[in-house]
Amino acid sequence: MNAIPAIVAGVKRIVMINPGFKGKQNPAVLYAARKCKIKEIYSIGGPSAIAAVAYGTKKINKVNKIVGPGNAYVAAAKKEVFGDVGIEGMTAGPSEVTIVCDKFSNPEWVASDLIGQAEHDNLAQCILISKDKSLIDKVQNEIVKQLKEIPRSSIARQSLSSNGILMHISSDKKIIDVVNKIAPEHLELNVKNYNSFVPKIKSSGSVCLGKYAVMAMTDYNVGSNHILPTNGSAKYSSGVSVNEFYKRISYINLSKKGIESLGPSVITLANYEGLAGHAQSVKKRIRRK
Amino acid sequence: MNAIPAIVAGVKRIVMINPGFKGKQNPAVLYAARKCKIKEIYSIGGPSAIAAVAYGTKKINKVNKIVGPGNAYVAAAKKEVFGDVGIEGMTAGPSEVTIVCDKFSNPEWVASDLIGQAEHDNLAQCILISKDKSLIDKVQNEIVKQLKEIPRSSIARQSLSSNGILMHISSDKKIIDVVNKIAPEHLELNVKNYNSFVPKIKSSGSVCLGKYAVMAMTDYNVGSNHILPTNGSAKYSSGVSVNEFYKRISYINLSKKGIESLGPSVITLANYEGLAGHAQSVKKRIRRK
Predict the structure, then answer these.
(1) Is B41 an 8 Å CB contact of chain A?
(2) What's the pLDDT tens digit per position in A2-14?
(3) A72 touches chain B (CB under 8 A)
(4) Could you say which of A45, A126, A278, B233 is the most buried, measured as most Cβ atoms within 10 Å of its Cβ?
(5) Which residue, B37, B52, B87, sits at the end of a domain?
(6) Does residue B136 sit in the same domain as residue B223?
(7) Which helix (H) or strand (E) holds A42?
(8) Does the beta-carbon distance from A239 to B250 stay under 8 Å?
(9) Cβ-proximal residues to B287 (8 Å cutoff; 6+ apart), any chain
(10) Predicted TM-score of the model (pTM)
(11) Which pLDDT tens digit goes with each residue over B107-137?
């Protein structure tokens, strides 16, 4: 998820850090890394891993930027090292979904979407919003039923009972206001008129449109990046993209005529600020020699 | 410097915080704010001002993102509130210039550029690099002479003696390596063959090309943004631009045929990860009802 935009941006050195499980990397992860031609892989994790790549060790050369999700400790460590290295401009923490439904939605499908999200971990956030009270009731019944059918039901149950919210809201306008306040990592617009919502959604990591676009698809192979802003950070940031690895440098060129034309107002402003040295460096280039 | 890219990006609420001097805003600053149509201005500064806009007070509504330079305390405060609000992805700290010169450079001009930078504050960083030893000597003599001519000479002298470096480097290739290691906020390529340098400069905030493009011009009116990465952060970030205020949201739409074609591999991957709930949410949409 991080490697592809980095490759597209032309990053020369890509380092993967992943704690693995009991010191072993998952073969599927290694396969994906190989597909991305990542050659530098360290089986390390947690805050100490962040420190290792930020400052370097005897075995690991320091990196310039650290991108990717992690638990609360990793997030805190990244914030700590920021400035010495770059990090992405958002918080990638526990996962969140907000689903908007209408009377055309299939309650069985919607319930499975919420459970799919809730099974991630205890801190996952699941929110259902609808104008249709009876649909909300049906989804709730379906959740109870389907929770019995999955192996990670205790995690999902705990997540839903502590961070699950069912909201009955009376108008599309109010729904949009609430969604923009939540600024969810994932938004599913499981409604017939999703096109009328789209231009009004200002804050969300990614938006699934229509009944077939289920969030689980975005976890794996629909192509959108899945490292997305959580915890309301979609209000000021976006998912990981090639922008994360792309730099812009400003170039300024001035001809003799250019400085003669723009220089006098710079001299005025510099003197106003009491920066005579600034004014001098411009003056010297303007006066005839 | 911040307001214009924010306006271009379509930011609806723009707040200016500026401590002013003895509680009074500088009229020139207010004039610039008026030109940018900024209506919300608070005469506050320092870490407490950062906290005020990050979390809100009785009089100030919280903002979503805080952008702009500040001293070390402001930079630390911004890092602290990051996550609750957005901040730019770089460090905008004490100012820096690196100047590359050749035998065609005018030592009087170059000396004035270094002094213009050094008069900012004690922590300003001034570096001169050249293949030409005699030019370095001439610039050094000019600095001594010109330091007597500016009002802020004691600041400039202190800055140059603690953070000023004159480097004699034998080849353009080595010069480029050193510049990329420094990753200066400002780079002046005061050399005849600046075009051969440009594609090789990987890390710098902004680059002034040729003998007339002096950094002081970029402080005021040449049009490039002047809030630039310092302290080596040009290795992983860029100056403030419209990108700082622009968000991207991914939209995902799937047809019935789409999920039938992409879904099976998602089910395989989700089951491999032990996420049966994810697999279910896809399965339910594929099976015929």
Answers:
(1) no
(2) 799 999 999 999 9
(3) no
(4) A278
(5) B87
(6) yes
(7) strand A40-42
(8) yes
(9) none
(10) 0.92
(11) 999 999 999 999 998 889 999 999 999 999 9
